[in-house]
Amino acid sequence: MRKACLPFLLFDMGLMQHISRGLGSRPDDGIGYDSPMHHRSREFTMFSLTIEDMTCQHCVASITRAVQGVAPGAQVTADLTAHRVDVAQAPDQTAVERAITQAGFSVTPL
Questions:
Q1: pTM for this structure?
Q2: What is the DSSP string of 37-99?
Q3: Percent of the chain with pLDDT over 90
Q4: Which residue ranges form the domains of the chain, and what is each CATH number?
């Protein structure tokens, strides 16, 4: 056996032992993916905001950039006729509202 293959072999053996114990596939956390402890890092929320001065697609793009600046994984859906923005996968509503206000828009939570 070549020396370069040894780390891969040891990693595979450790991974197989970990899987055989039924703890998932990540040897570093010791918690299975089905465990409630696996999802302990952040609580994400979905909320809606009224933004009366959102009038065009440029406004929507500016608001989306502002939201994703403070919550990079957030999903933003805008309804121009209702002046409503739905934000999903954002951990902090207050930070999102502050970012939209700093972008120059008035925000009212629904």
A1: 0.61
A2: GGG-S---EEEEEE-TT--SHHHHHHHHHHHHHH-TT-EEEEETTTTEEEEEEES-HHHHHHH
A3: 57
A4: 3-38 (no CATH), 45-109 (3.30.70.100)
